[in-house]
Write a structure and sequence with these properties.
The relative contact order is 0.12. Helix 2 crosses helix 8. The longest helix has 40 residues. The protein starts with a helix and ends with a helix. Helices cover 85% and strands 0% of the residues. With 210 residues, it is mainly α. Keywords: Membrane, Transmembrane, Transmembrane helix. InterPro entries: DUF624 (IPR006938). It comes from Enterococcus camelliae. This is YesL family protein.
Length: 210
């Protein structure tokens, strides 16, 4: 029984993971304050989570800021593009809602395009965290991964959109999810996603397709 609570025991490992994710969550929020750096923060967070899964490496702050610096240039390009596209989709969506009554073909087109981009971004920043590649290859391979693993793509996108949907179901859920996101929720979501993505990456690494 004593070993159960020893350093290196299951309780200690779980508590260490929880603490590590709380620290990671703080790092993500801190470096995402300019908003346009959100993609860089995500890529750094995926680096940390990959190391947690593969090596049980809990040097969160060190690993995070090393990855943030290393991935900054490439992730920043995609982060800025994603920010611009997000604003464009929001403006288009608002315009269609205000102008048209009911579903129109342009609305469907914008929705499908936004969903497709959402699928790609589920892999994009994790790919940057995992590999050193050109901008062109990073985007192309993220697209391939999204198409070749469509069910996982749906699951990954659903994890994010599902949480956002829950927030607007009631004021209590909104406050609860917001509270959890401030302390651990964002990092925990990336931790779960990184487990799924790591399995996919390793599959193709063995096949030498990436």
């Amino acid at each position: 029984m004593d070993r159960f609570f020893d350093v290196g025991g299951p309780v200690y490992r779980v508590l260490a993971k929880i603490w590590g994710l709380m620290v990671l969550n703080f790092c993500i929020l801190l470096t995402s304050l300019p908003l346009v750096t959100t993609g860089v923060s995500l890529s750094a967070a995926y680096t940390v989570c990959f190391k947690m899964h593969e090596k049980n490496d809990m040097q969160v702050i060190k690993n995070y800021f090393e990855a943030f610096k290393q991935n900054f240039k490439q992730a920043m390009v995609f982060s800025m593009i994603q920010s611009l596209l997000s604003v464009l989709f929001i403006v288009d969506g608002w315009y269609f809602v205000q102008t048209f009554h009911g579903i129109t073909l342009p609305m469907v087109g914008v929705g499908v395009t936004a969903l497709f981009i959402l699928f790609i971004t589920q892999y994009l920043y994790a790919y940057i965290a995992r590999y050193q590649d050109s901008l062109k290859n990073t985007l192309a391979n993220s697209l391939k991964l999204a198409v070749m693993n469509v069910f996982t793509s749906i699951l990954l996108a659903g994890m994010s959109s599902g949480i956002i949907t829950l927030m607007f179901l009631s004021s209590n859920l909104f406050v609860f999810i917001l509270y959890m996101s401030v302390f651990i929720g964002i990092a925990f979501m990336i931790f779960l996603k990184s487990f799924l993505l790591l399995g996919i990456f390793k599959k193709y690494e063995k096949m030498k397709e990436i």
